[in-house]
Design goal:
By secondary structure, the chain is of the alpha+beta class. The protein has helices at about 5-20, 75-85, 100-105, 145-155, 180-205, and strands spanning about 30-35, 40, 55-60, 90-95, 110-115, 130-135, 165-170, 175-180. Bound molecules: ligand L4RZE5RM and zinc ion.
Length: about 210
């Protein structure tokens, strides 16, 4: 994909997720795969609801910036980790919603979503009669170390690549989702966040 098109998609995604309240302050980061070796990713520290195409830059799959004067997202290596592992990933979204933050603090090593119609946003689930165990990983300011932990987790998951859910939660921090393209990534994030919000509300009813 051309950088201009990717940047326009990222700017629009920022507006959408800001309208939903999932990227408060300067939280969140987004990316789109450009080709086999490069991705377009948000510049660090910008408010994601007010992005312009100048707030999107190019890095390689090791997180090295094409233009060394620009500083990419502090979490760039998590985006790279997804594109490196999942060849079908074309867009990655990260947000900090209240639901993902609160539930990830309370959860164990995964958070199971079961019985929701919106489970169909995940691949290979044609019915609500299913469950997805969304991994919950520890937060860590050392992002390279966090990515090594994710790689170890994915390596150890039974069922191979197809069984790995296209998203995870970072405890007390936020969610990551990915999909083949930006519209699908937005749909997955909205679906995941809807189910997390439901789970949170169900807990408050108990
Ligand atoms: C104020 S949010 C703290 C950093 C973070 O978690 C985030 O998602 C945004 O960081 P970035 O460097 O991508 O702007
Ligand atoms: Zn974050």
């Amino acid at each position: 994909m051309r950088l201009e098109e990717a940047a326009a998609q990222i700017v629009a995604a920022g507006r959408r997720l800001d309208a939903l309240g999932w990227v408060p302050a300067t939280a969140g980061n987004f990316s789109v795969r450009l080709d086999a070796r490069r991705l377009a990713v948000t510049v660090s520290g910008r408010h994601k609801g007010f992005l312009t195409t100048d707030d999107v830059m190019v890095v390689d799959l090791d997180g090295v910036a094409e233009d060394s004067r620009q500083r990419s997202s502090a979490e760039t290596l998590l985006h790279c980790g997804i594109y490196r592992r999942f060849p079908e990933a074309g867009a990655v979204l990260h947000g900090h919603s209240i639901a993902n933050t609160v539930l990830s603090r309370a959860a164990g090593e995964s958070l199971t979503l079961a019985g929701y119609e919106l489970l169909k946003v995940f691949p290979g689930l044609p019915t609500h009669e299913a469950e997805v165990a969304v991994p919950v990983v520890p937060n860590d300011q050392d992002i390279a170390r966090m990515q090594r932990g994710l790689d170890a987790l994915w390596d150890g998951m039974p069922g191979g690549m197809a069984a790995i859910p296209p998203g995870y939660l970072i405890r007390g921090h936020g969610s990551y989702v990915w999909a083949p393209d930006m519209p699908s990534a937005l749909a997955r994030m909205e679906g995941l966040e809807f189910m997390l919000r439901c789970a949170l509300e169900e807990r408050s009813l108990r």
